[in-house]
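User: Here's a structure from my thesis project, written as structure tokens. My advisor, Dr. K., wants to see whether a designed sequence matches the one we expressed. Can you design one independently, without my sequence as a hint?
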């Protein structure tokens, strides 16, 4: 079994970046971003589908040329269910 301990990277709000390749997995990857007000994150999904999950806070989201406006409502992880946005592959 591969080593499951992943150390934070900390560049551009990204705390953790796990890919199927660097984790020794077949399908699933995971990125964690800790964003400050006014910061942004972007990326290319290529042939992978993506689910963006707001653990806490609010943010504006756009994907595949579509603007989804403001997403998220809870201010901490214990205030109800998180908000999520599914982005299909491509």
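Assistant: Designed independently from the structure alone:
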């Amino acid at each position: 079994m591969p080593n499951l301990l992943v150390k934070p990277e900390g560049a551009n709000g990204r705390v953790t970046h796990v890919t199927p390749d660097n984790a020794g997995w077949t399908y699933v990857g995971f990125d964690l971003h800790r964003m400050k007000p006014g910061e942004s994150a972007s990326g290319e999904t290529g042939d992978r589908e993506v689910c963006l999950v707001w653990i806490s806070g609010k943010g504006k989201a756009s994907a595949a040329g579509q603007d989804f406006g403001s997403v998220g409502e809870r201010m901490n992880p214990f205030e109800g269910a998180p908000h999520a946005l599914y982005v299909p592959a491509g």
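When you compare it with your expressed construct, this may help: The CA atoms of residues 52 and 85 lie 5 Å apart.
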